[in-house]
């Protein structure tokens, strides 16, 4: 059975993600108590269910600490994937302010005083940290709901086994993706933004590609990143990772980073011998997915 655990920080989009799984035909359960996860899987197994998505978050309190060992046990007989949704604190505060909802950890029956929103968010991060370290993490700080649904749909195309490597383009002016394991800064490369004909285009467009592929520094940067990943990828695999996010950033995330992500992922997808372990390669373009009008 394919078991997907959806977790993360309140306000980061877990409901949107769960609906995306539901739309894809998964059996979905929201806000499940940790103690019931194994019995749920046993029941679904008897019903011959093949795919399930379960949302569990910090509302379950200290029992969340039991999840890693439970998932390890389930992983002996099933394919288990953890999807962790995250966002920066400022974004979360703004979202709670807009919806006027209370954070689920802002009150506690054992407390005589309610926690502030930021205190509740900090506590939630601490409770969920053991899950985040081995999860497929998605930073939704600058991601609208439709883009998150699209990213989840892309994730569902990959098999939840082996190592998944995500190449993500982004713009430094909107911050570095919090889920990035490796970050490459390509702002030193010539910028198509200063060509009035190329400015409204992106790194996916042929005129921009033709402009960049003729520049020796761009070719050298592409080669260096590929060689670095080629060299260190076996070490990340040996470390037991399930996900590795490689973020490539330029100023606005429209031209140079998009071009290099597309070029580099083409290289790795074309490799015939990647070892016995199944490696899946996914590409993301944060600024293009978030706002087609983003500038580089």
TrEMBL record:
Residues 1-157 form the RapZ-like N-terminal domain. It holds the Pfam family RapZ-like_N. GO terms for molecular function: ATP binding; GTP binding. It comes from the Bacteria. ATP binds at residues 8-15. GTP binds at residues 57-60. NCBIfam families: PRK05416.1. This is RNase adaptor protein RapZ. It comes from Polynucleobacter hirudinilacicola. The lineage of its organism: Bacteria, Pseudomonadati, Pseudomonadota, Betaproteobacteria, Burkholderiales.
């Amino acid at each position: 059975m394919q078991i997907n655990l959806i977790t993360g920080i309140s306000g980061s989009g877990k409901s949107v993600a769960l609906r995306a799984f539901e739309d894809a035909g998964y059996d979905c359960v929201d806000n499940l108590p940790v103690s019931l996860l194994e019995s749920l899987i046993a029941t679904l197994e008897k019903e011959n269910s093949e795919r399930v998505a379960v949302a569990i978050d910090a509302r379950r309190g200290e029992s969340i600490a039991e999840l890693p060992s439970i998932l390890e046990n389930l992983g002996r007989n099933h394919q288990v994937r953890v999807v962790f949704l995250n966002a920066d604190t400022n974004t979360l505060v703004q979202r709670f302010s807009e919806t006027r909802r209370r954070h689920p950890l802002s009150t506690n029956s054992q407390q005589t005083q309610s926690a502030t929103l930021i205190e509740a968010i900090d506590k939630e991060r601490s409770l969920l940290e053991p899950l985040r370290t081995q999860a497929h993490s998605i930073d939704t700080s600058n991601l609208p709901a439709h883009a998150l649904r699209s990213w989840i749909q892309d994730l569902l195309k990959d098999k939840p086994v082996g190592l998944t490597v995500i190449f993500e383009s982004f713009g430094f002016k909107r911050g570095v993706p919090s889920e990035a394991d490796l970050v490459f800064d390509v702002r030193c490369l010539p910028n198509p933004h200063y060509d009035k004909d190329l400015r409204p285009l992106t790194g996916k467009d042929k005129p921009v590609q033709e402009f960049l592929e003729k520049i020796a520094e761009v070719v050298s940067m592409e080669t260096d990143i590929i060689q670095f990943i080629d060299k260190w990828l076996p070490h990340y695999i040996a470390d037991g990772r399930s996900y590795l996010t490689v973020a490539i950033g330029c100023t606005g995330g429209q031209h140079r980073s998009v071009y290099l992500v597309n070029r580099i992922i083409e290289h790795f997808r074309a490799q015939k011998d990647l070892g016995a372990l199944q490696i899946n390669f996914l590409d993301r373009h944060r600024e293009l997915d978030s706002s087609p009008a983003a500038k580089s």
